[in-house]
């Protein structure tokens, strides 16, 4: 038990099923680590949850999903916010910080379909649903014959649209399906060499007030060191590319015996140009490795691609 005068932690959370699952998961972990502690959920709807019919890239990107939660923490209506790391903007507002990164779930993208078992089985002209520019560009590069159609909404909405026959297959993060106990919908987890995941995919992070030492002490047992290094490297790469909003960027890292291996990708929206590189180094250098890989990618032509994407 940590010595602290804090007896309650309030978790600001979005109301989507996945967000609630993650908040409950953190609540459970906190209660396990600190049996005396009361943990409550403060659910709220964000702009990102309200605007469901417009591609994310057009409405300002990921920040829309976290703003309300951050304001609640700054105003003292909540103490922590639980995020999917891949939805957390690379920079934090003054007074808040990302304190904790929990152990990563399956980081891969999942192929979900009612008729087909694998990406390779899709016939020419098959309609694949995803709104992620990262998935779109990699899919187009792999299979220029597929038709990629926008797909927004929470996990259940996306599955419903597939079941209604609007798509032949959809791509979702495996982690979301696993957490919502729908892993039977995963026909095939696409290996990371075929489809490079988004930075932080599958990892849950906890944000809190930067100077709230009591809360930080209570969060400490939830930290997973290897996941932290990996996610820090991936995020540093995105930061180096200024990949704050929705962009066709993939970054994924693994650690073997303390050595971190980071792979990065920037692609054009049509999938015609894909720039890839990788870097290795001690896990402690996670952020430098990410920054270094970003500058290599920029030099190799990612700057031109990204400027085009931002202009659109
Ligand atoms: N962009 C929405 C989002 N944010 C996190 C996940 C899944 C879980 C995760 O990556 O931690 C998803 C769903 C998806 O991309 O299919």
From TrEMBL:
Keywords (A to Z) from UniProt: Porphyrin biosynthesis, Transferase
Porphobilinogen deaminase N-terminal domain location: 9-216
Signal peptide boundaries: none
Instruction: Give one GO molecular function term.
Output: hydroxymethylbilane synthase activity
Its recorded reaction(s) are: 4 porphobilinogen + H2O = hydroxymethylbilane + 4 NH4(+)
Q: Which residues carry this modification: S-(dipyrrolylmethanemethyl)cysteine?
A: 245
Enzyme class, broadest EC rank: transferase
PROSITE patterns according to UniProt: PORPHOBILINOGEN_DEAM (PS00533)
Required cofactor names: dipyrromethane
The record's comment on cofactor binding reads: Binds 1 dipyrromethane group covalently.
| Pathway participation | Porphyrin-containing compound metabolism; protoporphyrin-IX biosynthesis; coproporphyrinogen-III from 5-aminolevulinate: step 2/4
Instruction: Determine the domain of life of the protein's source.
Output: Bacteria
Q: Name one Pfam family in it.
A: Porphobil_deamC
Report if keyword Flavoprotein is assigned.
Answer: no
Which GO terms fall under biological process for this protein? protoporphyrinogen IX biosynthetic process
InterPro entries with a match to the protein in the record: HemC (IPR000860), Porphobilin_deaminase_cofac_BS (IPR022419), Porphobilin_deaminase_N (IPR022417), Porphobilinogen_deaminase_C (IPR022418), Porphobilinogen_deaminase_C_sf (IPR036803)
The family classification in the record reads: Belongs to the HMBS family.
The record's misc note reads: The porphobilinogen subunits are added to the dipyrromethane group.
Per its database record, what is this protein's job?
A: Tetrapolymerization of the monopyrrole PBG into the hydroxymethylbilane pre-uroporphyrinogen in several discrete steps.
Its quaternary organisation is: Monomer.
- Please give the name of this protein: Porphobilinogen deaminase
Q: What organism does the UniProt record list as the source?
A: Psychrosphaera ytuae
Write the lineage as a comma-separated list. Answer: Bacteria, Pseudomonadati, Pseudomonadota, Gammaproteobacteria, Alteromonadales
């Amino acid at each position: 038990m940590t010595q602290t005068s804090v007896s309650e932690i309030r978790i600001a959370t979005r109301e989507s099923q996945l967000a609630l699952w993650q908040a409950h998961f953190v609540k459970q972990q906190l209660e396990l680590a600190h049996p005396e502690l009361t943990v409550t959920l403060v659910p709220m709807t964000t702009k990102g949850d309200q605007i469901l019919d417009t591609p994310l890239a057009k409405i300002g990107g990921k920040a829309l999903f976290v703003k309300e939660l951050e304001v609640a923490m700054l105003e003292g209506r909540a103490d922590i916010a639980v995020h999917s790391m891949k939805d957390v903007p690379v920079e934090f507002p003054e007074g808040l910080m990302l304190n904790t990164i929990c152990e990563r779930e399956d980081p891969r993208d999942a192929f979900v379909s009612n008729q087909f078992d694998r990406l390779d089985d899709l016939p020419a002209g098959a309609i694949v649903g995803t709104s992620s520019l990262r998935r779109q560009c990699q899919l187009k590069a792999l299979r220029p014959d597929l038709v990629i159609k926008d797909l927004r909404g929470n996990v259940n909405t996306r599955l419903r649209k597939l079941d209604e026959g609007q798509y032949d297959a959809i791509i979702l993060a495996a982690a979301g399906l696993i957490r919502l106990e729908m892993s039977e919908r995963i026909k095939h987890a696409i290996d990371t060499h075929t489809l490079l995941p988004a930075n932080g995919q599958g990892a849950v992070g906890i944000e809190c007030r930067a100077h709230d030492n009591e809360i930080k002490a209570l969060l400490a047992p939830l930290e997973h060191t290897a996941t932290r290094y990996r996610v820090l490297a991936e995020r540093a790469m995105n930061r180096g590319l200024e990949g704050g909003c929705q962009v066709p960027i993939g970054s994924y890292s693994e650690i073997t015996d303390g050595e971190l291996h980071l792979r990065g990708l920037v692609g054009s929206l049509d999938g015609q140009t894909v720039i890839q590189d990788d870097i290795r180094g001690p896990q402690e250098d996670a952020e430098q490795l990410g920054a270094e890989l970003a500058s290599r990618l920029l030099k190799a032509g990612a700057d031109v691609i990204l400027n085009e994407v931002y202009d659109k």
